[in-house]
Amino acid sequence: MTEQFTTPGIESSNDDRLWALLAYIFTPVIPIIILLMEDKKNRPFLRAHNMQALILGVVLWVINFALSFILVGLCTSLLTIGLVIFYGLKAYRGEVFEIPVVTNLVRSQGWA
């Protein structure tokens, strides 16, 4: 038996959940592609995840770039990969969740 995790008020199709998973794993490329697709960018579930994935991806790229000079780049890259896979799987399960600073920024700007 499989459990379905959903957030009340936001329905998601299998297609929406797959796009959200891809948006987190292949950030920032897939979120930009979703923004260019008219039929996808206005769906509530994708809208809740897309900008969050885009901002998270850009922040993680900047942190990885800065820390690669100080620390071993492999360690920070592995942490980044694990983090985006974790968030991608949560999105694929149909969950809408908050990423501490990123979600507040996205909501305050009116992007989600």
| Quaternary | single chain
* Secondary structure tally, helices: 6
User: How would you sum up the global shape?
Assistant: globular
In the residues, how many domains can be counted?
1
Radius of gyration: 14 Å
What structural class do helix, strand and pairing data support? mainly alpha
Helix content: over 70%
Alpha-carbon distance between the two ends: 33 Å
Name the poorly predicted regions: 1-5
Largest sheet: none
Give the total of beta strands: 0
Tell me the β content: under 5%
Question: What features would you describe in this structure?
Answer:
The N and C termini lie far apart (33 Å). 71% of the residues lie in helices and 0% in strands. Helix 1 (14-25) runs parallel beside helix 4 and helix 1 packs antiparallel against helix 5 (73-92). The chain has six helices and no strands. It has one domain (23-108). It is mainly α and 112 residues long.
What's the helix and strand layout?
Elements: H1 14-25, H2 29-36, H3 38-41, H4 44-70, H5 73-92, H6 100-108
